[in-house]
Design a protein that fits this description.
By secondary structure, the chain is an alpha/beta fold. The chain contains 12 helices and 9 strands. It is globular, with a radius of gyration of 18 Å.
Length: 263
């Protein structure tokens, strides 16, 4: 397969999150100058979010239907695999529907880290805390220290599919995808990252602060906003409050309300 050089396919998986997916897409449309395509895989939403996606002419929509669609993380991982399999651009990006671009030139910035030897660029958890608190946790987390001693290079960190850039040809040629070892309880995309490292490919992890200059991420939003997913009451209250505060911010509202970005 030949790959379109310098172009990125951005894949977003949607499941009943119309408001978030709309904002995600509009933010990409507003702030992206580097060549790109957008593929949205809908996991049988059957609601207004699917109607909205069907109205967009500038995206490629893959509709998954039927009762055979897997649940939870498997639904997300297999959806990413569908888009990856058909990807014909030099780069493939996995992005969550609750991730929003906030800075012009963000994609070009990520691409600047992807030299010919680099197979993956991105960050880990985007859970910003004061730097001193992060440092304090690292030096006092005994459980993490023990895990590192036992697993050696299998540390907790991996580049997450929140917003991760991959070199498509590397994934295709090495038969790598987003559901590796998920049947063993591994999170979507985690084993993919480890396989890249084990096969000698260079990766470029970026700090959560560097990623936060370019994107927002509303963690667990799909689960919190859909009652069919069971979350603890405390977790639901915490993240709903975070979602409401973020969505109400003027910076977000300016993008969310700009319907011209749909055309």
């Amino acid at each position: 397969m030949s790959y379109t050089p310098g172009t990125t396919t951005i894949c977003i998986v949607n499941y009943k999150t119309e408001e978030l997916t709309r904002l995600c897409l509009r933010s990409i449309r507003k702030f992206t100058k580097a060549p790109y395509k957008v593929v949205v895989v809908d996991n049988n939403s059957g609601d207004a979010s699917l109607d909205y996606l069907r109205s967009l002419k500038w995206i490629t929509l893959i509709e998954r239907t039927g009762e055979d669609i897997p649940k939870g993380g498997w639904a997300h991982g297999t959806a990413l695999n569908l888009a990856l399999k058909a990807c014909d651009t030099e780069f493939f990006m996995a992005m969550h529907s609750d991730t929003f671009v906030r800075k012009e030139g963000w994609l070009q910035n990520l691409l600047s880290y992807a030299d010919e030897e680099t197979a993956c660029v991105g960050g880990g958890k985007l859970d910003l805390k004061p730097r001193w608190l992060v440092f304090l946790k690292k030096i006092t987390d005994i459980k993490a220290f023990i895990r590192k001693r036992k697993t050696k290079k299998r540390y907790d960190f991996y580049i997450r599919t929140i917003c991760a850039l991959y070199r498509t040809e590397v994934l295709h040629k090495n038969n790598l995808d987003f559901t590796l070892k998920m049947d063993q309880g591994v999170t979507c995309g985690k084993q993919l990252y480890y396989e890249l490292i084990d096969n000698g490919f260079k990766t470029k992890p970026l700090s959560e602060w560097k990623m936060a200059e370019m994107i927002y991420h509303l963690a667990h939003a799909t689960m919190v906003l859909n009652p069919e997913f069971k979350v603890r009451d405390r977790t639901e209250r915490k993240f709903k409050k975070k979602i409401e505060a973020t969505m109400a911010a003027p910076e977000i509202q300016n993008v969310a309300n700009d319907s011209t970005l749909d055309s």
